[in-house]
């Protein structure tokens, strides 16, 4: 294991501990700021995610957005490939997907222009540390090559880190929303 791989593994471990503590302390319904931001983009195709483990829950905001336009969730196709996004409905049938996240029972793929991105840690400049598979980095690079694509990180305040081990392939966030604030990053 090279130094950067170990540094990233250590950063993830510490961030997972902070996220779990924040998850255990927070009450359901912390998606308020996410709903407020998404209200300004009604009808724009977007993707959220099905929360797993201790991830902050975007589902209430996704359900509100689904009343106005297409909302999808990521579906992993294979290792080292970009994600695809299948249309999601609040009461729609789901099946088990890779890594424990639910996905729509029937695949109905589309390309979102806004991605609500889960993460392990973030920094004050819009850097994001994910799970290490590179799925969102590949996906954002692909989508941004075609059109403006807004990447909104969604996390607990406690997931902020001062010094993330980032690489040139790591796609930056345009915005970050926590239970207490909305951060916008200029590129």
Automatic annotation (TrEMBL):
Q: Which reaction does it catalyse?
A: (6S)-5-formyl-5,6,7,8-tetrahydrofolate + ATP = (6R)-5,10-methenyltetrahydrofolate + ADP + phosphate
Q: Which family does it belong to?
A: Belongs to the 5-formyltetrahydrofolate cyclo-ligase family.
Q: What is this protein called?
A: 5-formyltetrahydrofolate cyclo-ligase
InterPro entries annotated for this entry? FTHF_cligase, FTHF_cligase-like_sf, NagB/RpiA_transferase-like
Q: Which cofactor does it need?
A: Mg(2+)
Recorded superkingdom: Bacteria
Molecular function terms, GO-annotated: 5-formyltetrahydrofolate cyclo-ligase activity; ATP binding; metal ion binding
One Gene Ontology BP term is: tetrahydrofolate interconversion
Q: Which Pfam families match?
A: 5-FTHF_cyc-lig
What EC designation does it have?
A: 6.3.3.2
Record keywords: ATP-binding, Ligase, Magnesium, Metal-binding, Nucleotide-binding
């Amino acid at each position: 294991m090279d130094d950067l791989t170990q540094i990233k593994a250590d950063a993830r471990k510490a961030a997972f501990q902070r996220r779990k503590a924040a998850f255990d302390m927070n009450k359901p319904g912390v998606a308020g700021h996410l709903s407020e931001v998404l209200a300004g983009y009604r009808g724009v195709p977007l993707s959220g995610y099905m929360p797993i483990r201790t991830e902050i829950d975007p589902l209430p905001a996704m359900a509100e957005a689904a009343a106005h336009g297409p909302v999808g969730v990521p579906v992993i196709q294979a290792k080292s490939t970009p994600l695809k996004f299948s249309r999601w409905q609040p009461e729609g049938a789901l099946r088990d997907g890779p890594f424990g996240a639910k996905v729509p029972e029937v695949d109905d793929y589309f390309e979102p222009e806004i991605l609500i991105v889960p993460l392990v840690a973030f920094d004050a400049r819009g850097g994001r540390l994910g799970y290490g598979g590179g799925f969102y980095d590949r996906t954002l690079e692909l989508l941004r090559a075609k059109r403006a694509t807004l990447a909104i990180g969604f996390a607990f305040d406690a997931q902020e880190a001062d010094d993330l081990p980032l690489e040139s392939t790591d796609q930056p966030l345009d915005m970050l929303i926590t239970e207490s604030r909305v951060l916008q990053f200029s590129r």
